[in-house]
Each structure stands twice: as structure tokens, then as C-alpha cells.
């Protein structure tokens, strides 16, 4: 397959390396990009503190069957991702490192699979270009450097897609076929959508119906056994969980089972209660931004892709599967951009062969260069405005910090990134715009993962609030919290009391009032904006701002008389003899 003139900028010796050496080189580069910043920051809201706290409690209690946070069952997600964090925490003893390791390793596996499949289906050049496209899309590195479940489930889904494609297009390879279905099962007990690779069977079956001689030896009655492997993996968690919950027999345990099996799966898909968006949300708001510039590449290579689809049905299968995944998530009223991450590796792989052998449309280079110029100008302008305390920026960041030095430091970072984009544009003007864009993006990620983490860490954690509370509390005092958030447990150096995540605000407040009445030197953290009936903010101590909220310390003097007792007493104490993240 001849190389496109578009990629003459890359040294030929890179693509002439042995397959394994080029893989090692790509994995090393990806590891630097993904792992930079591990250990430099703590878990940040919204999801990371929750998963880190669940993992910490698993190790502390020795109970790994049902995830728990703050002493309560956590029914929103299956346990696999939290098990992985708990394992690395048990192994390293450092939660600040452990919580980011699972996604980092899974993302490296995704990179390796994309390269290997591209090499097997086409050649090393195509495999390497697919990896570059995958890493260029912002969504991939964003999630690889976070502790949300999606990067892990995207990895399991990529393994499953890899296995199906290996079986039908480079096989038959029945081992890989059943591995694919087994990883769908693993994906389901990581996050319910792990079955998505099964949708790939639809275009595969359509191709087989159109040409019965296609997939000889691969499309047989044995394919029907694939779901058995999937359900067998699901059963390794589901059966022990159900037996354990039924053995406990408590109201909370049974509620956990019903929630995780029904409410968080089918009910959440059909009748979502959050993140409500119109059907076109992914097409207009997510894909153009988080997959940039891959949608532009698709349009710029439309004719070569149409030709590839005619001659290489694997491209049709990959793109059809991506479209089915987008359709699947578009049907549900609840939408988050991160839901589409599992489709990104196959999308990058589908574009790579056309980009490897064809020059994009003439409009593509100037559009990409123009985008580069706009991003550079926007970053430089934003950095200069931050340095000059522009009123709108000061107002915008006041929710996080009112320290002018913090805004100036953020401005310095943004200005530096803008200069990086300008330097890459000017210094590599004769290079292809996609290469310039890749360089600017990678350097920007390194700046964000180091300098950016240092700026954001105080703003994304409640350390300052807890430190202020601990300074003002008398010796031997106990600390509770209304409207509980998991990150406060992680950072508290005192035993921490909350009043059930599943209670409404009124019931939490009544429990807090009842708890404070039951002992001396008991104090409660509360956001200033909460509408409280059992407490008053008059005379409450100001603790500062965190998570865009101003926090107050409520003591016995802030208790109102004669608050109604709680319908059910709920008090959960987490012992934290020191910050787990120091």
C-alpha cells in the first residue's frame, strides 16, 4: 500500500522499525502522556472522590463484595473499577497514586490494541496513524488521566471489538471470538453498557446474508455460544452478590440489589433523571469538540472512505458500529459526552487507512491551520486578560478563589499554552497541519498535567475548609456534615460523621440536629446556600470557599430549639486518623 504524500513528514525509519519495536515506541510515548501527573493531584469531584473512598473502605474493612462509601452501600455502579483501585491501593499503600493507575493501564492497552489491529488489517504505518488519531482526540487523554469508569469500560469494549474483528476478518479465530464475549461480560460488571460490541454482529450478519460465502468457517452455529461466555463472566459477580445480599436480608442490602440490577440499568436508560439532552446532543456538542479533528478528517476523506468501504468491508463494519453506538446513546434522554468514549478507538482505526494512503480534500489544510491560529489567539488573549484582572474573568473564578495571585498563575499557564500553539505554528509552518496540531496538543497536555494540576489542586479539594475547621474546633471535637460529599471524608483528619447519602436534605438536617443534641463538642459543616430549618447561620464561623460554595461551621449555638426528630435515625461515622491523601 503506497504512502500518502500527506505523511512524508514522518521519518520513514519509524515505520520501517520492526512491529514490536514500533509498538514499544508508541506505548512508551503514550505512557509518558498518560502517566504524567499521577501522584501530583488528589481525586477531584464529581466521581473520583466517590470511587477512591469506596476503594479505601474496601481495603480498610476487608469487605470487597458490595462497594460502600461512608459506611453505606453504593448502588450506582458495579464493583470492578473500584476493585481495581482498591487493589492498587492495597499494593502501593498510596491512594493518591492508586486511584489513577487502573485507567492509565487500560488506556495503554487500548493504544496497543488499536496499533496491533491496524497492523494486522493493513500495515504498521496504518496502525501507528490510528494511534496518533486516537491520542489526538481530546476525549481519549482526558479520560485516560481521570478516575472515571469510562476509560476502563472503553478498554474492555475495545478488547471485545478486537476479538470480533480478529475472528471475522483475520480468522477464523474462535479463541478471540469467545474472548470478545467474555470481555463484554467484564464490561457489563464494570459499567452496564459493556455489551455494546454485540451491536457489531448486526453489520457482520448483514454482510453474511448478502454474501453467504463470506466469513466461511467464522459464521457458524458456534457463534450462538458467545453470549454464554458473556453471561458466565457476569455470573461470577452477580451470583455471589445476590447470595450475599439475600444472606444479609436487610432493607438496605435488598435496596442495593434492586438498585444496581434495575434502576441503574434499564430504568436509567429509558427514563433518565439527570443529564437530559436533545437527541442531536452528541452530533452537535460532543463529537465536534471532544473528537476534534477526527470529524473533519472523516469529511475530508469521504470519497476514499467510500471506496474503502466497497473494497474492505471491515471499514464498513467499524463505521457502522460507531454509528450504532451513537444511535444507542442518542435514544436515551440522559446523555453525557463521556458515554461515547468506547466508540472512539474504532473510529480512529476506521479513518487511519484512508489517511495513510490518500491526501485529504483541499479545504482540509487551511481549515486545520485556521483552527490552530484561532486556538492560539484565544489562549494568548485569555492569558493576557487574566494577568490584567479582567472583571468578567475575576467574577468567573470568584466561585473558586478570590486570590488574585491564583488568577495570575492560571493566566500564566494559559498564556504559555497559547505561546506553545503559536510556536508550533510558526516553527513548523512547512510541516503538515495535522502534525503541528498533534505537537501543540501533546505539549499542552503535559503542561496541564503538571503545572495545571498544581494550580487546580487547592481549588478542586476541600483541604482549606477542613484545615480551617480543625483549627477552630476544640480538642476532642467531632465533625459532621449536612449534604454529604465523599471528598470530605478523604481529606478529614478527624472522625467524620454524615447522615446518609440517601436521605433528603430535611431528613439529613434533622439527623444532624439530633446527633448534636446527643453529645458535647459536636459541630456540623454546611454550605452557606442551604435552606436550613433546624439550624441558623447567625454566628456560624466562616471557613472559606471550596467547590464553588462558601462553607460554615455550625455549633451548639446555631441549633434552633424544638426541631422535629428524624423519621429514622441515620448516623454513619468514618474513622479517619489522618488524611489518607497526604
Can you offer a commentary on this structure?
This protein is mainly alpha-helical and 582 residues long. The protein folds into three domains: 292 residues, no CATH class; 97 residues, no CATH class; 112 residues. It contains 25 helices and eight strands. The protein has a six-stranded mixed beta sheet with strand order 6-7-5-3-4-8, with helices on both faces. Strands 1-2 form a two-stranded antiparallel ribbon. Helix 24 links the parallel strand 3 and strand 4. Helix 6 packs antiparallel against helix 7. The radius of gyration is 26 Å and the shape is globular.
Label this structure with key terms:
582 residues; mainly alpha; 3 domains; 8 strands
Q: Give helix % range.
A: 55-70%
The helix count comes to 25
What structural class do the secondary elements suggest?
Answer: mainly alpha
Shape: globular
Cα radius of gyration in angstroms: 26 Å
Distance between the termini: 54 Å
Task: Let me know the average pLDDT.
Answer: 90
Q: Give the uncertain stretches in residue-range form.
A: none
Q: Quick one: how many beta strands?
A: 8
Query: Strand sequence of the main sheet, in spatial order?
Result: 6-7-5-3-4-8
Largest sheet: 6 strands, mixed
Number of domains: 3
Fraction of residues in β-strands: 5-15%
Amino acid at each position: 500500500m503506497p504512502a500518502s504524500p500527506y505523511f512524508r513528514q514522518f521519518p520513514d525509519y519509524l515505520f520501517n522499525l520492526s512491529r514490536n519495536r514500533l509498538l514499544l515506541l508508541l506505548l512508551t510515548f503514550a505512557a509518558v502522556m498518560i502517566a504524567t501527573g499521577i501522584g501530583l493531584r488528589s481525586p477531584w469531584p464529581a466521581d473520583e472522590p466517590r470511587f477512591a473512598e469506596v476503594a479505601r473502605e474496601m481495603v480498610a474493612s476487608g469487605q470487597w463484595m458490595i462497594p460502600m462509601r461512608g459506611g453505606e452501600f453504593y448502588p450506582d455502579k458495579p464493583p470492578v473499577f473500584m476493585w481495581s483501585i482498591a487493589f492498587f491501593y492495597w499494593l502501593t499503600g498510596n491512594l493518591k497514586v492508586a486511584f489513577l493507575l487502573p485507567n492509565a493501564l487500560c488506556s495503554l492497552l487500548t493504544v496497543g490494541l488499536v496499533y496491533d489491529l491496524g497492523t494486522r488489517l493493513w500495515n504498521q504505518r496504518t496502525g501507528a496513524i490510528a494511534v496518533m488519531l486516537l491520542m489526538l482526540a481530546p476525549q481519549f487523554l482526558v479520560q485516560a488521566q481521570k478516575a472515571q469508569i469510562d476509560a476502563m469500560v472503553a478498554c474492555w469494549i475495545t478488547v471485545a471489538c478486537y476479538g470480533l474483528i480478529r475472528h471475522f476478518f483475520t480468522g477464523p479465530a474462535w479463541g478471540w471470538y469467545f474472548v470478545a464475549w467474555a470481555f463484554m461480560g467484564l464490561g457489563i460488571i464494570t459499567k452496564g453498557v459493556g455489551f455494546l460490541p454485540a451491536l457489531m454482529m448486526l453489520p457482520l450478519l448483514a454482510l453474511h446474508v448478502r454474501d453467504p460465502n463470506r466469513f466461511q468457517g467464522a459464521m457458524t452455529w458456534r457463534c450462538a455460544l458467545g453470549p454464554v461466555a458473556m453471561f458466565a463472566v457476569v455470573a461470577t459477580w452477580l451470583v455471589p452478590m445476590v447470595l450475599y445480599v439475600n444472606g444479609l436480608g436487610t432493607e438496605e442490602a435488598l435496596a442495593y440489589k434492586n438498585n444496581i440490577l434495575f434502576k441503574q440499568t434499564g430504568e436509567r436508560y429509558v427514563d433518565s433523571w439527570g443529564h437530559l439532552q436533545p437527541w442531536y446532543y452528541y452530533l452537535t456538542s460532543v463529537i465536534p469538540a471532544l473528537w476534534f479533528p477526527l470529524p473533519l478528517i472523516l469529511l475530508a476523506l469521504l470519497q476514499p472512505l467510500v471506496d474503502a468501504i466497497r473494497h474492505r468491508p471491515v471499514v464498513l463494519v467499524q463505521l457502522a458500529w460507531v454509528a450504532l453506538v451513537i444511535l444507542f446513546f442518542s435514544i436515551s434522554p440522559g446523555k453525557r459526552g463521556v458515554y461515547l468514549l468506547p466508540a472512539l478507538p474504532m473510529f480512529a482505526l476506521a479513518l487511519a487507512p484512508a489517511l495513510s494512503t490518500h491526501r485529504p480534500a483541499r479545504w482540509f489544510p487551511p481549515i486545520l491551520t485556521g483552527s490552530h491560529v484561532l486556538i492560539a489567539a484565544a489562549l494568548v488573549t485569555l492569558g493576557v486578560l487574566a494577568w490584567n484582572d479582567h472583571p468578567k474573568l475575576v467574577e468567573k473564578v470568584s466561585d473558586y478563589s478570590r486570590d488574585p495571585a491564583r488568577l495570575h498563575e492560571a493566566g500564566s499557564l494559559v498564556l504559555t499554552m497559547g505561546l506553545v500553539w503559536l510556536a508550533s505554528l510558526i516553527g513548523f509552518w512547512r510541516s503538515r497541519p495535522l502534525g503541528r496540531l498533534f505537537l501543540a496538543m501533546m505539549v499542552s497536555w503535559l503542561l496541564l498535567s503538571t503545572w495545571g494540576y498544581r494550580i487546580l489542586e487547592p481549588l478542586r479539594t476541600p483541604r482549606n475548609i477542613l484545615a480551617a475547621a480543625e483549627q477552630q474546633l476544640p480538642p476532642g471535637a467531632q465533625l459532621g456534615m449536612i449534604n454529604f460529599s465523599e471528598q470530605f471524608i478523604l481529606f478529614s483528619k478527624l472522625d467524620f460523621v454524615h447522615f446518609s447519602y440517601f436521605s433528603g436534605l430535611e431528613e439529613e438536617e434533622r439527623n444532624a440536629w439530633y446527633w448534636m443534641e446527643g453529645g458535647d463538642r459536636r459541630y456540623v459543616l454546611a454550605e452557606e446556600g442551604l435552606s436550613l430549618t433546624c439550624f441558623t447561620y447567625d454566628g456560624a464561623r466562616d471557613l472559606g470557599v471550596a467547590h464553588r460554595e462558601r462553607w460554615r461551621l455550625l455549633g451548639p449555638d446555631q441549633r434552633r430549639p424544638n426541631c422535629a426528630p428524624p423519621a429514622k435515625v441515620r448516623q454513619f461515622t468514618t474513622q479517619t486518623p489522618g488524611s489518607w491523601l497526604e
